[in-house]
């Protein structure tokens, strides 16, 4: 049930009738006609821009269109008032019975209230985290993990067929460095003194890996050269790190559908196949790039390379894919990996990268556009840094990883639910301040507490009603007469509930799960406001003297809890039944 879509359908039908009557010319495009909440709630329940967007193509005064449209809309039983404002905006007020239908719809469909078929089963691949398998996930990865996971859940809720994917960067030089670092811990496990040179990984997390390697091979690699142990230790170390990363993700409630190895692209012909595809489209050539902008490095020299004509697909410059010595550049396996995604039949691709990957955006979009002949869109979301605070002061935690704060450090301190919700309280491309004291504070300023408290309050009401022996199942509440819920505070809460299905579709369309967190905070605010009004106006309290007087109030509260639970489910947060 999407009330905004329903009323938009009424608007479109009215516009069609105006065309048939000759009030509007034929051939108008109604795609940009919207029905949305007014900027000022005092202006009504909904507003439409129909007259404003159609005035120019219809060659008519927008107020003239708005007045004719208002007359048509007033014929619908749900519309109490259609009022023209300003140059041609049209504000609508709905009959109070409409809001009863919203509450009943939530009670009848449960947490599926707001679920959409907008995605129509389109296959979407969401790749996120994809950290180098060289250590535990750090706090920066945490934000990307939460964002990507919430986005995947949101798209699933909006009707898409979603695959969650982790790209294991195990094909580069960094895994050789990992292997050498583990080898040092292996020697240490044999009682040797070792020194970690610059460029190696000194974190304590590798101590157990070195000991595990000793348990597996004994002293077979002691004193041997890299030619003997490097390949084996690289594989052993990567497997150990991925086991650690999987455990870190599990602690945050993140489960991937696919772990895709970069190493699997090498020596299998997959890179060559992707390049051949581009070459067949005349997008691969040998050429010499212009020098880099700004100060030119002293060791830079013009040289002929194999280049991808990425400028043909929106990039700023063409990109090298093979070095002069014949080795692939880092971009080549990335092309092959996305080629594989396209070949797997995904309709849309989403990559979630850290802020330091801004330079990848245009080249990767160009590659996917070229590989899919423009059929498959790629949306790249960059997640900005997380700054840690405690009581407003920069906070430096103990760093078990050696050089950075880990995901597990954060989860162990505040819990997975708090971590996930807080990571979504800002849009992903804005820096996030994570204050360990603030996120555990029980106040309105802490959005996690504020939303959870709203849900817990409703659960408390239900427990007390059940203790009275009253029927409070959703099936019972859905049949309750709600016509008495007419106070302004009750209607505001019901109106906010009506926004939920529309909000889901907007958030899914823009790939912005933070909108869910923002909405839940606003919805919780309306519930708390109604609760507090009950302190001064007894007839607004959810529990009245009788079952018949209480159930309409309880139905509204329960519908609110259903939507909060659905929204928290998208964010990967468990709703609280009581606050301790």
UniProtKB/TrEMBL annotation:
The alphabetical list of record keywords is: Aminoacyl-tRNA synthetase, ATP-binding, Cytoplasm, Ligase, Nucleotide-binding, Protein biosynthesis
Enzyme Commission code? 6.1.1.19
Q: What Pfam families does its record include?
A: Arg_tRNA_synt_N, DALR_1, tRNA-synt_1d
Q: Name one GO biological process term.
A: arginyl-tRNA aminoacylation
Major localization class: cytoplasm
Q: Which InterPro entries match?
A: aa-tRNA-synth_I_CS, Arg-tRNA-ligase, Arg-tRNA-synth_N, Arg-tRNA-synth_N_sf, ArgRS_core, DALR_anticod-bd, Rossmann-like_a/b/a_fold, tRNAsynth_Ia_anticodon-bd
DALR anticodon binding domain sequence ranges: 451-579
Q: Which GO terms describe its cellular component?
A: cytoplasm
* Arginyl tRNA synthetase N-terminal domain ranges (all copies): 5-94
Q: Which SUPFAM superfamilies match?
A: Anticodon-binding domain of a subclass of class I aminoacyl-tRNA synthetases, Arginyl-tRNA synthetase (ArgRS), N-terminal 'additional' domain, Nucleotidylyl transferase
Q: Where in the cell is it found?
A: Cytoplasm
Tell me where on the tree of life, at the top rank, the source sits: Bacteria
The record's catalysed reaction(s) read: tRNA(Arg) + L-arginine + ATP = L-arginyl-tRNA(Arg) + AMP + diphosphate
Matches recorded under SMART domains: Arg_tRNA_synt_N, DALR_1
Task: Please name the GO terms that the record assigns under molecular function.
Answer: arginine-tRNA ligase activity; ATP binding
Q: Where is this motif: 'HIGH' region?
A: 131-141
Give the record's subunit note.
Monomer.
What protein family does this chain belong to? Belongs to the class-I aminoacyl-tRNA synthetase family.
| Protein name as catalogued | Arginine--tRNA ligase
Gene symbol of the encoding locus: argS
